[in-house]
Amino acid sequence: MMKISAAGNQVLKTFAPQMERTTLREKAWIAFLLCVIGVGIYALYLQITVGHTVTGMRDNVVWGIYIANFIFFIGISYAGAVISGFLHLLKIEWRKPIIRIAELITVIATIIGPLFILLCVGRLDRLHHLVLYARLQSPITWDVLAISTYLAGGVIFLYLASIKDFAIYRDSTDLHLSKWKRRVFKFLALNYHDTPSQERGIHVSMNLMALMIIPLAVIVHSVLSWIFGMTLRPGWHSTIFGPYFVLAAIYSGTGVLIIALYIFRLRYKLEAFILDKHFTYLGYIMLVLAAGYGYFTFSEYLTDWYGSEKWTGQLLKKLFSWNEYGGLFLFTNIAGIILPIFVVAVPALRKPKYLAMVSALMVLAMWVKRYLIVVPTLETPLLPIEDIRPEYIKYSITWVEWALTFSGIALFLLLFTIASKFMTLIPVSEISEMAEENIQTKES
Amino acid sequence: MTNRIIPFSYWTNIRLRILGIGLTVICYITCFSTMMSQDSLSTETNQLFKSKITLSANQLQEGSIELNSLLRVKVDNVYQGISNAKITFYNVKSDGEEKALGEKITAPNGKASLIFKAADLAADADGYFSFLARFDGNEKLTAGENDLRIHPAKLTIEPIEADSTYTIKIMATADSPEGPKPIADATVGLYVKRMFSSLKVGEGTTDEEGTVEIDFPNNLPGDADANVVITALIEESEDYGSLAASVTKPWGKSVANIETELPRALWSPHPPTWMVVTFFILMGTVWGNYLIIVYKLFRIRFKKDNTHARA
Amino acid sequence: MEKPENEMTNQRRDFLKNAALGVAAAACGSAVCSCGKKEEKESGEKVVLLSPDGELVTIDSSHLRQVHKTVGVSREEARHGIPGRKFVMVIDLARCKNARKCVSACQKMHHLPEEKEWLQVRLMKDSPEAPPYWFPKTCFHCDNPPCVKVCPVDATFKRQDGLVLIDTERCIGCKFCMAACPYSTRVFNWSEPEQSAEVACLTYSPETSVPSKVGTVEKCDFCPDMARQGELPDCVTACPNGVFYFGDENEDVVTNGDETVRFSDIIKDRGGYRFAEELGTEPRVWYLPPKDRLFPVERGLEGLPDDIRNRYKDVLGE
What are the alphabetically sorted keywords of the record (chain C) (predicted)? Predict the structure, then answer.
């Protein structure tokens, strides 16, 4: 039998109904998500049979929101990779209730991100060519290697952190699981019985992974930024693009983590475990990242604007003009930099509710920012577009692309829902004395 | 022989026949419609087009003559070459007798040419050869012919190499019973053969002796062995047609930058070495660590542990 | 039952024959249908042809199979290039009047629909005060090609003879090369390409770039199949003003069909330059500046269809 703390028992009790059966409400929720995904599958069917002509992409804007989604999802995957990896290495105690959610975000987002880059590929039937004829010089090859390595790392990290829990689920008598689920847990828990040597094994592995996942995450997002950075295009061909993307990714990942914590706290009444101070601490992290991100943004555009090279100037004119992308550009800077700093800086606003709201706004702004990185640059080729077909001049998102974007989000939520059927969203084994004290104060 | 095979019943027969007929009809319809829909050839009717044929000659080395004909028709006020037409070339003797030299089918641009030895041709009293190119015509096109009279002549070409300056000496002579007679005052062009066309590298006019010396540039690229094909040419003279003679000399510069293997580069199939090394180091480190962790997990799964669960 | 057996077999044989014919016809029809993309439009240009049975026919030139023929080179040869060559193009901007014969010849020879232009004629105006000029733009076949660098599957490649080609049977359609090319040279088949059944059934070679394939990238290829036969690319021969010179840099000679000149001489004498040299892509296409022009720039607008004329609106400031 695995030893469980009182707080751990509390957690197990909280999530037991969730893991034991699926309520009608949850079934409806899953059905809804499946419907959204279904529409996306139909859109994908059209895109494959009719061709990419059903998207808004054309010869100038060869990539659209798919690639923006790709960067976005890989970006939010940083939530677990960096936050939990970093906090694990620093042995920060308050991380324990939130790491499971963070790591789940990492793995699920890393699964969904690459799906979006596949949507940009004209010949999905030749995907094996990426392995068969791989060219090491292409940033896409780097991406394939880096993301698959990163995904493997994320899965291993999540699994290592869950083995103890799986052992607990396997042994728990309070948990009324169906037979097959218990068998799954028995398999997943390996032969873990909390012996000192086993625990040391897990511990050493965790440290190793935490150490590796951070440089890995940095490499992945740098490589991703180099898809743009390695081309000769204004707004892309920038030396700070690697760090800029990395920082933006951690930033948006933190935002998504705050939103997720807020929603789960509300949904499962986890006030005893996810405390206000978690939000405050994450808010501080967000503040630092917002400042860093703002600094990078300022540095990037100041340099471009000051140098005023002709081609770059054409791009900036579009980004700064109201008739083109001025409004969106302003939005990304206000909602993506200034507002988060303001909300965290003012003590009266530093509440979970406001932090979650500003995070949602910030995450949206970060998505728009990715759009502003991809599309305006592609609409500004060196030789001005001489075409009178409107769809070749200006990119506009079609319903197919929206449908697939929303199915990506739906898939993200669906995978999260499925995951919550197999594990407690707060690790039972890790839950600390701190939380235990908290329960007692609440109960008294 | 036992009547084991049960023959088709009458109705089956009828049915099969109907099926067969049906399929035949479908076959015919398919074929017919395919034919109809095929390249909508519009045949010009009730009008005889006037064909136009031109003829020129090129006297080559070693007594060969090349006859070139061009067959065209005027459609919408524009001359266009007629392809696929048969052109017959003749040598006309002084008594008017036509001796066929050969037949050629015109190319898509309307051109046809024939090369033959001049040795067994009949010359007229003045020593000229007469040629005739004829298109027989058909129900759509008028027949047409064109003749040409040239005097046999030849160019001799002599490369002179002195102190790394190159000169080509050319002698133009007309054949006559008394022996070669110099052709004076003829403009001779000097050409070098290149991939798509010939580059003119010099020009001169023959003197009384029929000779001219033309300098050859010494900075011209040749092939891998520095060889260049040099041609002297008198173009379209009235009496002789075109006269040409060629010689191959290693007078060019050998092209050194012919690559057979692409270098290691970002744009070649071979990646730069540092990239391959970095790739293996990075991947090896990360996946090596993964393997270590997986090994540790295997130990947890399969290693018997005596201290079962801590007290 | 009374019928003699041999009659039976005869009937059966007839039936089988008819059926076979029908099946053959059906197969034939379906073969046409399966490759049968949208029908090719007539080009309006006529060609005179003498048919084998003595008929003189004019046919639409688009029906003539002046298809780029596969010259029987293997895939390895097509990737390696023509030995010892280094192709180069010189475009004389002083002679261009936007006659667009190069564009239509290219489209005809590669069976491209009207809106797909591998070769574009642009109207350039380098600064507000600078005079406008016509600028024919092929693929530059760069020596440091940004497109080839980024290809993840070696589908677009640089050959030893200088050409940058695409193997559309390997291309996965990621479009990275299109994003990487600073010259907007490449086009993508966003849907099933418009080409006749006959063209769609041709054997593909990277040297002919025919037929087009959905979901892949294609572009100007400098017609290497023509070069193998010692013939010039179609745009070169189609130009009425001799704007395009093509040749082998190793031989130091370029020709536009009429004139043959030394490449180094023409670049030296006419102030030849490469477009956007500062990008470091090292194009294999050189331009001669539009000095002492043969035609005023307005000549290029005469008789243009509206949809093409409208492209130049921004430059003309209309």
Answer: 4Fe-4S, Iron, Iron-sulfur, Metal-binding
